[in-house]
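Lecture notes, unit on protein representations.

Consider one protein chain, 319 amino acids long.
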Amino acid sequence: MNYLDFEKPLAEIEGKAEELRAMARREEGMDVEDQAAALDKKAADMLRDLYTDLTPWRKCQVARHPNRPHCQEYIEALFTEYTPLAGDRNFADDHAVMGGLARFEDKPVVVIGHEKGHDTKTRIERNFGMARPEGYRKAVRLMDLADRFNLPVITLVDTPGAYPGKGAEERGQSEAIARSTEKCLQIGVPILSVIIGEGGSGGAVAFATADRLAMLEHSIYSVISPEGCASILWKDAEKMREAAEALRLTAQDLHKLGVCDVVIREPLGGAQRDKPATIAEVGRAISSMLAGFGEAERADLIASRRRKFLDMGTKGLAA
């Protein structure tokens, strides 16, 4: 288990309980179960206290936790007959974006998502979930395919933002993001999006301009990272806590504002503490959202989606 900064006291208690049990395994006849159980109870109480009312900055930390389930894990668990489709038919295949044809509850769909990777090698290969222009152009190609064959689109968003490298800018990063966002508004099939970790900047919007947007309880969705915001406004990245408060980037804030439609509960301690339970909850949320469309007409879907985004920002302003 990787512990976050604010979880260090919890790490000490859980570490002591594990040490006691390890000693008991090494030395026969040593009975430490009562002591270990007492530490377990203390750790459980502390975990509950820590996660009862997380600040926005702590939610950012949880959303970025390296052990949270990633896009590939959701696809492997929730989708069958997944057939990945690679490349943008223009420049290259972007490994930060994965997608293809699949079945969800035996219904054919197109699934697209950001993949961050789970260790050093895969994180470098996936560019830490930061897509380049070819990643967004691949997504556009997949959405065109979904539109042609009348398949719902499901996107799984988990990115710090689009890759800001020199090559990406030379190949038209902002144009590719805009085209992907535009395509989301044009296609006549249902689009469902789930923020499973970080929803950073236009790199997330390009996949999340959807009919229904769900967010995991401790995920975030924002126009800029708290560190970036603090650097611009206060010339000091260390003011990221104040920036996180001001950005209103939590699932709960965005639900009040009408940006997020569904908040998906996470296990106590965050998605990383019980991946199967989290993935199952996301599956139920997708199923419920998908069932809500029924036999919606193409023109009605497009009009409703456009109206949703034109009306965005008018809800919850008084709060």
